[in-house]
Amino acid sequence: MAHTELDLRERRAIEDMLNAKVPVSKIAAEIGRHRSTVHREIKRNRYCDDELPNLNGYYGMTAQKSATQRRARRRKLVRFADLRQHVIKQLEIGWSPEQIAGRLQHDGQSLRVSHETIYAYVYGPDGQSEELARYLPHRRKKRQPRRRRTPRGLVFPADRSIHERPDYVKTRETFGEWEGDLMIFERAQGKTNVASLVERKTRFAVLFRNNDRSTTHLMNRLMDVMEPLPQPARKSITFDRGIEFRKWRKLKPGIGTEAWFCDPQAPWQKGSVENLNKRARRYLPRDAPVAALSNRDMKSICDRLNGTPRKCLGWRTPTETFREELMKLR
């Protein structure tokens, strides 16, 4: 059943039953609502006057007026075009809703909004039609209720931290340890993106296109790409904590690959793939028509990257060193 606001009839019924000393649980059953909804309604819309405390209480008409005013405040970004354009502009340059709201308050603007109002607009019908969620630091197709969000510590638990990763991975002593990331493109290119992978010891690069950013699609594509390699050549992948990688648990049973995660906002901890992304941008700039690129086009880019001699490899190419390591596994 879709969520609906309490209406005036229900609020008047609550007022009458409260005056009759009916318990909240029975009020909820009578009007067909959950008891927590009624508890929240009474607490949120109770009338209070410090100067006339004898008038304090719940009044249906007053509660209806308060609720209407709150809804109007939530729709500020619909009602005020200048404020809406300002918020959208700041989102596009990378500001978070908290930063936008805080700056409006700091500047003493008479017309301001809370960060919750901005989030509500972004994930509402108007914001979704403009795909504003793509500008948020943590992007989702829709916003989850705050009490139902999975703590990030459960999505990326402490035992998967890069600090728990074996030391030999850091020293590049062993073959089969990878880093992974996602390359994002301009809004005009749609939802298509490119996943980038690099093997730490040989600097061998793999790029493949995704038609969307859903974590299920990304992990399935990643496993399809990595599965042809022998298992010792795909021991682990180190990611950042982007929400696109939250289905990392599929890797272990799927292709026998461990997953490790960098600290928040610490891209240097996966410097190999960051370096790969910078080199790949020569062929895949942010305005590249990535949706039109074929698998052959992606392979051609990988061949260029892997066929370039690298000083760190003694001027051998990543392709040469990768093949040497594969031969050792036979």
- How is the CATH topology of the largest domain named? Nucleotidyltransferase, domain 5
**What is the global morphology?**
elongated
Head-to-tail CA distance between termini: 59 Å
Q: What is the element string, with H for helices and E for strands?
A: HHHHHHHHHHHEEEHEHEHHH
**Count of structural domains:** 3
- On the 0-100 scale, what is the average pLDDT? 87
Give a count of the beta strands, DSSP E runs of length 2 or more. Answer: 5
Radius of gyration: 27 Å
Kindly report the spatial arrangement of strands forming the biggest sheet.
Answer: 3-2-1-4-5
Q: Based on the structure given, which CATH architecture of the largest domain is correct?
A: 2-Layer Sandwich
* Strand content bin: 5-15%
Low-confidence stretches: none
- Structural class, from helix and strand content? alpha/beta
List keywords for this structure.
330 residues, alpha/beta, Nucleotidyltransferase, domain 5, 3 domains, 43% helix, 8% strand
Task: Write structural notes for this entry.
With 330 residues, the protein is of the alpha/beta class. It folds into 3 domains: 8-72; 76-136, no CATH class; 155-328, Nucleotidyltransferase, domain 5, CATH 3.30.420. Helix content is 43%, strand content 8%. It has helices at residues 8-19, 24-31, 35-45, 60-74, 76-79, 81-92, 97-106, 115-122, 125-129, 152-155, 167-170, 215-226, 251-255, 271-280, 295-306, 318-328; strands spanning 177-183, 193-199, 205-210, 236-239, 258-261. A 5-stranded mixed sheet has the order 3-2-1-4-5, sandwiched between helices. Strand 2 (193-199) and strand 3 (205-210) form a beta hairpin. Helix 1 packs antiparallel against helix 4 (60-74) and helix 3 crosses helix 4 (60-74). The protein is elongated, with a radius of gyration of 27 Å. The termini are far apart.
